[in-house]
User: Which sequence fits this backbone?
């Protein structure tokens, strides 16, 4: 039997850019990393105070993947984030107030209090938040990529799926269609070692999730998802390829789900050694160290950034807590088509 060709690993060369990150961009990235981490910590606190009903998810460990990938998009591009990608919402322009209202289920939230977390759509920002049914978002992204191509919008659709969710049939169908039609779509498989309590070793027979790309005839990469620069550069190359009409890219981002599946899950099934190992690669710590080493970040800039993050969070939290729940008589409004 012919040996399978390994998937591509290096960042593809760009005709016109080397994807250099400017100092200003580095500082923006750092701000989004800190904001995302602190926002999700606030969500956990609000959950424990009984102010959030349902689930409270975090992307702790996944911040570089969410932020680095969304940072590669332009305004006209479409984002379909998953439940670990809060940073992507923020980078694409979603306000902290809207995200807080959404999590607290308020009547003036984007889903008008009918759902929480990232379950909303904001067509103006071209953000279509996670659909609960794992896998169902990928055909949406492929469909939008097709519509956008037909409209000659020059836009790209970026979406994500977990290691577990990647096994759902919809994902295969969408990739089959997107690859043959050369749709401007990018799929990031967030391999965070677990799907709820199921480890990846019980989910796949192949070595890497990116090996699947070969079956679709598209480029596939497996990258360290805690490396913000690497995530950004690979995604920028994939965006460029998609925009040039060359079709989709599959990126496996390897990370660790540092918290339980949701706030109720103590994750006792996760070996502690795994968490200790991955803690050393904490993506927020990594970018902070990198920027300190590059002398882009100073103690003063770091403190200013923290002050800004905490002030913005306080404002958003207060605004959401003070906002009303939806009126009971509106429960069925907007649920069915007229
Ligand atoms: C089709 C489907 N099956 C099951 C679920 C319940 N469910 C929600 S999240 C989850 C685990 C997902 O794991 P993974 O895709 O690896 O993403 P992660 O939560 O690890 O980021 C499950 C089983 C669902 N939402 N949709
Ligand atoms: Mg997972």
Assistant:
């Amino acid at each position: 039997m012919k040996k399978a060709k390994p998937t591509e690993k290096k960042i593809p060369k760009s005709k016109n850019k080397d994807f250099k990150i400017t100092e200003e961009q580095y500082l923006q990235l750092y701000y989004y990393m800190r904001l995302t981490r602190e926002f999700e910590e606030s969500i956990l606190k609000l959950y424990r105070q009984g102010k959030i009903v349902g689930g409270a998810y975090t992307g702790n460990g996944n911040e570089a993947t969410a932020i680095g990938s969304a940072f590669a998009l332009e305004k006209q591009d479409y984002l379909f984030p998953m439940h670990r990608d809060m940073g992507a919402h923020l980078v694409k322009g979603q306000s902290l107030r809207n995200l807080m209202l959404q999590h607290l289920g308020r009547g003036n939230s984007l889903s008008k209090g009918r759902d929480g977390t990232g379950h909303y759509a904001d067509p103006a920002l071209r953000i279509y938040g996670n659909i609960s049914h794992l896998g169902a978002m990928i055909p949406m992204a492929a469909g939008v990529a097709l519509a956008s191509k037909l409209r000659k919008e020059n836009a790209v659709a970026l979406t994500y799926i977990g290691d577990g969710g990647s096994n759902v049939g919809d994902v295969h169908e969408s990739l089959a269609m997107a690859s043959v039609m050369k749709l401007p779509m990018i799929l990031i498989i967030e391999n965070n070692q677990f799907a709820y309590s199921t480890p990846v070793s019980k989910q796949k027979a192949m070595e890497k999730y990116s090996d699947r790309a070969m079956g679709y005839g598209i480029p596939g990469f497996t990258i360290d998802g805690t490396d913000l620069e690497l995530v950004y550069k690979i995604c920028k190359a994939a965006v460029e390829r998609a925009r040039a009409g060359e079709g989709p890219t599959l990126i496996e981002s390897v990370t660790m789900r540092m918290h339980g599946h949701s706030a109720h899950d103590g994750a006792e099934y996760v070996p502690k050694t795994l968490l200790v190992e991955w803690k050393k690669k904490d993506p927020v710590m990594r970018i902070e160290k990198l920027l300190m080493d590059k002398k882009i970040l100073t103690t003063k800039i770091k403190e200013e950034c923290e002050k800004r993050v905490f002030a913005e969070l306080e404002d958003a939290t207060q605004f959401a807590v003070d906002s009303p729940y939806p009126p009971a008589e509106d429960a069925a409004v907007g649920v069915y088509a007229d």
